[in-house]
Amino acid sequence: MGLLTSLKSLFILQLLMGFVFVVSGLIINFIQLCTCVLWPFNKQLYRRINCRLSYSLWSQLVMLLEWWSGTDCTLYTDQATVDKFGKEHVIIILNHNYEIDFLCGWTMCERYGVLGSSKVLAKHELLKVPLIGWTWYFLEIVFCRRKWEEDRDTVFKGLSQLKDYPEFMWFLLYCEGTRFTEKKHEISMQVAESKGLPKLKYHLLPRTKGFTTTMQCLKGTVTAVYDVTLNFKDQQTPTLLGIVNGKKYKADLKITRYPVEEIPDDEKECANWLHKLYQEKDALQEHYHKEGSFPGPTIIPPRRPWTLLNFLFWATLLLSPLINFACGVAVSGSPLLIIGFLLFLTVASVAIRRLIGVTEVNKTGSSYGNPEAKKQN
Questions:
Q1: Average pLDDT, stretch 97-125?
Q2: Where is the chain membrane-spanning (predicted)?
Q3: Cβ neighbours of residue 138 under 8 Å, at least 6 residues apart?
Q4: CA separation for the pair 377, 208 (Å, rounded)
Q5: N or C: which end of the chain has fewer CB within 10 A?
Q6: Quick check: 165 pLDDT over 50?
């Protein structure tokens, strides 16, 4: 086990895995671009193809969590709720406290067959991130600048276009709008106090506009809202870099299903419902910090082999020519070729590190608390 742990931390192995992800992602993005010719003639075929192409890329990250790091994911919910997973259009409300919270969400999507069709209301800056933003663009992800005056038409149009989506989708909302930090929490609670709202200990005050708009636009399509509260055993602070290094974490997810019929249609009442939900989420986190677990029965969904097989396919396809080329460079003895290849490896490692940096708490750009930015809803 110690030898395996040492192998996982080897930079060369991590670099090769990163190479597979980046190059396969570029190939997938090119194929996605080619599928655009289908849109005017058969929109649903375009969507089904892009769901599978997106799965081929995102499942490589899920593979890191499930197979490389061996991270455990335990669900705290009832069997009746689990029986509906992957069989309906839903909105997911997830707390935004960790660098890999999205990855834990994707793992659940993969295990219940909706990874390729999963959606998110994403910040516009991510559209410019290679691979991630480009893949999301072809997947019809809704991007917003978090300024309602600018976002109104874009969000309404993007959400309305998803009403006839052919695959069951899980639409993820980070209602807090940004990842939790102590500084943001302090500012958020000042806003809560000014609005006469109960203070939260483990969450930021939810921004209600995105939720109420999504509910309004997807009415008749979405049948339920899944509230997901995530935490980790032993007060772990997981990072994507830790996952890449093969570190194992233990994730716990408390999931509660709310049929849309139980959620008010009126915008103000719907917003109040969301605030009440976050008070309940805060109580769940308080229980977890005291007891070390969430209340209720537990279910551990088995991991599927498809993420590993997909990665092995891309690794076999892409690493063979790379290794042959590297051997050729070494045998040639040409200083110019060797320097060029080393430069390529350096650029590749920097690019991969930049992609990882997108998830890091201390590097995620946010205007939260900026007096020039638009205030919270």
A1: 93
A2: 12-39, 311-331, 337-356
A3: 29, 32, 33, 35, 36, 50, 53, 54
A4: 6
A5: N
A6: yes
